[in-house]
Design a protein that fits this description.
alpha/beta; about 210 residues; 8 strands; about 20% strand
Length: about 210
């Protein structure tokens, strides 16, 4: 079995997705823009605790808490096609198709939340999603994270779990930042793409390939 793991933000897409997703929704529900007024306080706290998951949770709760599943589904139907049409790397789409053409198992693994990552994966024809979970209170969004933030060493833990589930599989990983390197090093093959100079230097020192195949 061949498994191909793709990061989302910066690897498939050209930009961060979470802020764009939330801001676009709030523009259509202007009163929710007031939630952004709380973020300087949370950003100040981040300088102390350095917990990206905690900051992410604060942003989601400040802006989207109480939104219904139906509203989110409608927004996904509008936002996801636009994102994929306007803000993805052509090389990433070509590599996805190359893996699909050989029957590989495609996984989208992202620190972004399951508010929209599974919808992106479905639109791209991927088989599985690993991302940060967000809690719902029945049909309304609570916003608290239900999983660790799927970043850094947490992605490595997810890869280790994949190894346990699929001991004979060959894993290929694509990422774009130094935060992706821990899990990429644990794969059989890894390619760092669209990366900064410092990330390239770190990847080169650890034997990770640079650029798309």
């Amino acid at each position: 079995m061949q498994i191909a793991l793709f990061d989302l933000d910066g690897t498939i897409t050209r930009r961060d997705t979470l802020v764009a997703y939330i801001f676009g929704f709030c523009l259509r529900h202007p009163r929710r823009l007031l939630g952004f007024l709380l973020m300087p306080w949370h950003l100040a706290g981040f300088l102390v605790h350095r917990d990206r998951g905690r900051l992410k949770q604060a942003l989601i709760q400040a802006t989207l808490s109480g939104v219904s599943r139906e509203e989110m589904a409608r927004w996904n139907k509008r936002w996801v096609p636009r994102l994929l049409a306007r803000a993805t790397h052509a090389e990433a789409r070509r590599q996805l198709e190359a893996h699909r053409s050989t029957g590989d198992h495609l996984i989208l693994m992202s620190a972004s939340p399951d508010l929209y990552v599974p919808a992106i994966a479905r639109a791209l024809g991927m088989n599985e999603t690993i991302c940060t979970g967000v809690r719902w209170d029945g049909v309304y969004l609570d916003g608290k994270l239900t999983t660790p933030n799927r970043r850094d060493e947490e992605k490595l833990r997810c890869v280790q779990m994949l190894r346990q589930r699929n001991p004979d599989a060959t894993l290929t990983a694509y990422g774009n930042s130094s935060a992706d390197l821990p899990h990429m090093r644990a794969c059989d093959r890894a390619c760092l793409v669209n990366a900064s100079g410092s990330a390239v230097r770190q990847a080169s020192a650890s034997g990770v390939n640079i650029g798309w195949p």
